[in-house]
Design brief:
It holds the Pfam family Peptidase_M11. It comes from Volvox africanus. InterPro entries: Peptidase_M11 (IPR008752). This is Peptidase M11 gametolysin domain-containing protein. The protein contains 4 helices and 9 strands. Strands 4-2-7-9-8 form a 5-stranded mixed β-sheet, with helices on both faces. Strands 1-3 form a two-stranded parallel ribbon. Strands 5-6 form a two-stranded antiparallel sheet. By secondary structure, it is of the alpha/beta class.
Length: 207
């Protein structure tokens, strides 16, 4: 599903859970060695803009995403999902996951490219979310996330009125980055994150 194109950035299919790129440059992260589990490093942006709030604050999202000292192995967390579903081949931890609350301007013209997060949902807006969030974290929060390969943007509930999809992802890494966009409508569904991250790891749809 989806249409393959040439160029450095992928085109967006309007089908939910569908997003493809022309080339796959490699997996999301390297392993610790020739054998063993893959450590997935992610910078997660909980985005607010246009008067719309992110569906989670950082503490609430972290409780859903990562295990605490007393979290049982059968609890519904993303850390447990990866451990169980990959049979230990992919793992995340508090050391490899960085979660940020980010507020962005509703519209603007950075680098002569106009964006409007309230009225449009084009490739320009998709990458503006990512690049502006990264800039905020690096420059305002003064946190270096250059070593985190995966970027996950968790969007407000209201975005679905403009963006008809519920989740998008790149297949493999374009250069040194992998991207996931999650609509607020699916922000509590760990299977949506798992599905899209599977694409980041190079997996296609079955069938």
């Amino acid at each position: 599903d989806g249409t393959r194109i040439t160029g450095t950035r992928p085109a967006v299919s309007r089908e939910p859970f569908s997003y493809e790129v022309a080339e796959v440059f490699g997996p999301a992260d390297i392993k610790d060695g020739s054998f063993g589990p893959r450590n997935l490093s992610s910078a997660i942006f909980l985005l607010s803009f246009c008067g719309w709030n992110a569906p989670y604050d950082a503490d609430t999202f972290r409780a859903m995403w990562l295990n605490g000292p007393e979290t049982p192995p059968n609890a519904s967390t993303m850390q447990n999902y990866f451990s169980y579903c990959s049979q230990g081949a992919v793992r995340i931890s508090s050391e490899t996951q960085a979660i940020f609350e980010v507020k962005l301007p509703c519209s603007g013209v950075p680098e002569n490219r106009s964006y409007n997060f309230k009225t449009r949902c084009t490739e320009v807006e998709l990458y503006a979310w990512m690049s502006m969030a990264e800039s905020y974290v690096q420059k305002t929060l003064r946190t270096d996330i250059s070593d985190f390969k995966q970027r996950v943007a968790v969007l407000p509930m209201e975005v679905f009125a403009t963006c008809s999809w519920e989740a998008l992802a790149s297949v493999g890494c374009t250069g040194t980055r992998c991207f996931v966009w999650i609509s607020g409508r699916r922000s509590s569904d760990l299977t949506a994150y798992m599905h899209e991250t599977g694409h980041n790891l190079g997996l296609q749809h079955s069938g």
